[in-house]
Design goal:
37% of the residues lie in helices and 15% in strands. It has 462 residues and is an alpha/beta fold. The strands form three sheets. The protein has an eleven-stranded mixed β-sheet with strand order 1-3-2-8-10-9-14-15-13-11-12, sandwiched between helices. The protein has a two-stranded antiparallel ribbon with strand order 4-5. The protein has a two-stranded antiparallel ribbon with strand order 6-7. Strand 6 and strand 7 form a beta hairpin. The longest helix has 24 residues. It starts with 7 loop residues before the first helix and ends in an 11-residue tail after the last helix. The relative contact order is 0.14. GO terms for molecular function: catalytic activity.
């Protein structure tokens, strides 16, 4: 039984049917993690004791006939921006190397209560600050399992590497500007952030109006399963959505005929490579074949990068203003002054523009069910590089044109694998929906996945 090639749902089923024990699954997972870690550098901290404790509890529950949780016995990793009680949360920074978490974050508490076993904390760029590179001063470079000379992207670097390499079937990540969707695109995964507030964030992020907890997985249904568990109201998060959680699992079986889709290859300002545009356009045609109406929309809005930078770097700047800058990533230290120099008048003018952007996007989704774009303008980036060579007029986040706008607006958004470039690297297609419409993304993604099976397209290390 090859655990590395199994989905989370398959792992849960074989454990529940007693075809294999949870302890055997976890032992196999930990062995694989230890074997691949020297090549990948995907983990900051490993937690084999936590993992085996959860596995033993699963086997005991099965033997006693107790009801099983949705994630019972499934291995999972957690990005090192999310607290696991009693384990260090370093934020990928030498300034937080001894930061011991007092308690689980809500998402972690929920996956543990559902029976999952946490195998470790995965690498991140420092405070989640970079989109292209997968390195931090604390952990070094995390490598892409598709090609070890390429980056996974950021900032959920280790999460993407470990899932793509078959160590765990899914992982918890965070997304403040694309940090789930970008590495998912570069590593051939499905990655999704729900609408802002759907999955609670606590303790408060350094960028509280942008931050989402999201999911990276190899299949759409596995992502839906994990989303079902981690979503829902949490009183400690003032932005938490109190509405009932939709049935994400059932959404994967809904038909998509008649879905109204807008296809925007540039959003009005992006510069995708010809190869990325061709691959994503070919993918969009599949939705027409499945009975959706697809309309080309060249311009959706103006580039809101200044609005994103004002919010993100203001939060990071205030958080780190008293830290020793010599300990920080030079790329991060270089932008902190930007935030500290921002005047109140300038900042609030951007706050108001952000509200205008939110309203523009809200009106857009009155006419369409989904917006499709490339996830990234490029298909791969060399390891250690912050900005792709053909986009050097942009900074370390602004080159990822397609992702950060939807952290500003808070819309649900995902990336799904849609093709392979000439170098054998995966390409992602971004799906964005209106508020409270994650189900539209999941049903469309599941139908697309069925029309373009991806699970057999595995990277070298898998």
């Amino acid at each position: 039984m090859n655990i590395a090639n199994m989905t989370a749902l398959e792992i849960r089923n074989v454990i529940a049917e007693k075809e294999i024990s949870a302890v055997e699954v976890m032992s196999d997972t930990l062995t694989r993690m230890n074997a691949l870690e020297p090549a990948l550098n995907a983990f900051v901290t490993t937690t084999p004791d936590l993992a085996m404790e959860a596995a033993k509890a699963t086997d005991k529950a099965i033997m006693s006939g107790k009801p099983l949780g949705l994630l019972q016995g499934i291995p999972i990793s957690v990005k090192d921006l999310i607290n696991v009680g009693g384990i260090k949360t370093t934020f990928g920074s030498r300034t937080r190397v001894n930061n011991l978490a007092a308690a689980d974050a809500p998402s972690v508490e929920r996956v543990r209560n559902a029976g999952a076993g946490i195998i470790g904390k995965t690498t991140t760029t420092e405070f989640g600050s970079k989109a292209g590179s997968s390195d931090s001063p604390l952990t070094g470079v995390t490598s892409n399992p598709w090609n070890l000379e390429k980056t996974t992207g950021g900032s959920s670097a280790g999460a993407a590497a470990s899932v793509a390499a078959g160590i765990t079937p899914f992982a918890l990540g965070t997304d403040g500007g694309g940090s789930v969707r970008i590495p998912s695109a570069l590593c051939g995964l499905f990655g999704i952030k729900a609408q802002f507030g759907r999955v609670p964030v606590f303790p408060t992020s350094a960028t509280p109006t942008l931050a989402h907890v999201g999911v990276l997985s190899r299949t759409v249904r596995d992502a839906a399963l994990l989303m079902q568990v981690i979503s829902g109201y949490e009183s400690r998060d003032p932005a938490s959505v109190s509405e009932s959680v939709p049935n994400f699992i059932e959404a994967c079986d809904l038909p998509i005929k008649g879905l109204r889709i807008a296809w925007s290859p540039t959003l009005g300002y992006a510069k995708p490579t010809p190869e990325v545009r061709m691959i994503t356009e070919n993918a969009v045609r599949r939705f027409e074949d499945m009975g959706c109406s697809v309309e080309l929309v060249e311009k959706v809005f103006d580039d809101p990068i200044d609005l994103w930078m004002a919010d993100f770097y203001a939060g990071i700047g205030v958080t780190l203003k008293d830290e020793n800058s010599d300990l920080l990533d030079p790329a991060l230290a270089g932008v902190l002054q930007y935030a500290l120099d921002e005047s109140m008048e300038s900042y609030y003018s951007k706050v108001f523009k952000r509200y205008s952007l939110h309203e523009k996007v809200r009106q857009f989704f009155q006419d369409y069910d989904l917006l499709l774009t490339p996830t990234l303008p490029v298909s791969s980036i060399n390891a250690g590089v912050n900005v792709p060579p053909n986009l050097l007029d942009r900074n370390m986040v602004s080159w990822s044109y397609y992702t950060y706008p939807f952290n500003l607006t808070g819309n649900p958004a995902a990336s799904i694998p849609c093709g392979i470039d000439e170098e054998g690297m995966p390409v992602g297609l971004q799906m964005v929906a209106g508020f409270n419409r994650e189900v539209d993304i999941l049903q469309a993604a599941a139908c697309f996945e069925a029309s373009y099976p991806w699970e057999n397209k595995m990277p070298i290390l898998a």
